[in-house]
User: What shape does this take?
Amino acid sequence: MTARAAWDAMTPDRDAVTQVYVNMGKAIAAYERLIMPAPSRFDTYVEALLKDDKTAMKAALTSDEVAGLRLFIDRAQCIKCHNGPLFTNNDFHNTGVPAANDLPADDGRATGARNVLNDEFNCLSQWSDAGENDCAELRYIVSEGHQLDGAFKPPTLRNVAETGPYMHAGQIATLAEVIRHYRSAPIAPVGHSELVMIPFTQIEMAQLEAFLRSLSAGVNAPPELLQAP
Assistant: This one.
């Protein structure tokens, strides 16, 4: 309450403070867009495949990693959500992720969509640099419906082996546990899960994990951008 009262008393200086805050966020976002994932062994494999270079294909991925790739694309159905160059379709899905301990209940996109519409810093706000014809995703956002309950955006799988713990609040510690979660397809704590139980063997789960680890390659950015400030 004290902080809010101090903020309200700053009129007309609040806009100047907010502009500094906004500019800091834009600078950080601009920097982050320069830090791209580097080509992985999977990318080398794809290039070799396109050239029908079987020797290079064998050198790029092991037989278990290739088996994991086939599962990823086919029977595991991972590619339904994790596709494209960054292995995400940038949509929102309910995959029955368990609730995080010691955190408030989170219904995902259901609340998130409404929050972004009301956010003073969204794409249509006075603080945005968007053009007149930009912000289509916000203008046409679906903000109601049971399909939003418990739905979260799939993250990129680039360098996924280096980014645990996993899920939107770090509920799952390891890749192996993530795969077991998708294998068992538990009932969603909120809404309806899109998962269907698939009886993978232990070998197949290990192959899926091996493929995911083949996506690790660090980052692709000029060295000066990676130095500590």
